[in-house]
Amino acid sequence: MFVKAIIGVWALWGVVWIALGLWADRTCRAAAVRRQAPYRLINILAFACMFVDGAFRRTAHGLSWTPFVRPLWRVPPSLGWLLVALAAGGLTLAIWARITLGRLWSAAVVRKEGHRLVETGPYALVRHPIYTALLMASAAIAIAKGSPIALAGFALMILGYSLKARLEEHFLTEELGEQAYSAYRRRVPMLVPFAPPAR
């Protein structure tokens, strides 16, 4: 039941995310496609592992998620609903971060017209709150399913967003200036709130 709820939360987030995609400034410059390809391929594979590791099957009680590979554990309902809350909280954080970025947001690593460093809202907690948020929601679905395939997808998601964050930071340092971005890096952690920031 809670796996369906988490998938429903992800689906709702996807609709909102696509709608917000219409609100963005023109791109001035992008990081080289060859540098962006690795994290993109990893993230596509990660999402496939997390969401296509099984199928819904009709039972006497309605639709039930059945994994292709036997789960490593069964999550009790109390924990399952906490995982639904984690997914909802993570995806709400992603939307908050996206709205905070406003027209500067892009799915790829690019520079927008009038690009500037955003340090308010969730960007005061972590430098990449959207990635943090998606990792929270990914952890929720992987743990709820307990499937080795979904867990592998979550591990790939960590790798993919870590690569993207590092590429983005290198690109923004070049575009916005070493001094401005380095000062931000020293104050704010990359992905984990309240973790020690880079020195």
Description:
With 199 residues, the protein is mainly alpha-helical. It has a single domain (2-18, 31-187), classed as Four Helix Bundle (Hemerythrin (Met), subunit A) (Up-down Bundle), CATH 1.20.120.1630. Helices cover 60% and strands 10% of the residues. It is built from 6 helices and 4 strands; from the N terminus they run αβαββαβααα. Strand 2 (54-59) and strand 3 (62-67) form a beta hairpin. Helix 1 packs antiparallel against helix 4 (129-145), helix 3 (77-101) packs antiparallel against helix 4 (129-145) and helix 4 runs antiparallel to helix 5. It starts with a helix and ends in a 12-residue tail after the last helix. The mean pLDDT is 89.
Features:
6 helices; two-stranded antiparallel ribbon; Four Helix Bundle (Hemerythrin (Met), subunit A); mainly alpha; 4 strands; single chain; 199 residues; 60% helix; two-stranded antiparallel sheet
Tell me the layout of helices and strands.
Layout: H1 2-20, E1 27-30, H2 33-51, E2 54-59, E3 62-67, H3 77-101, E4 110-112, H4 129-145, H5 148-176, H6 178-187
Antiparallel strand pairs: 1-4, 2-3
Helix pairs in contact: 1-3, 1-4, 2-5, 3-4, 4-5, 5-6
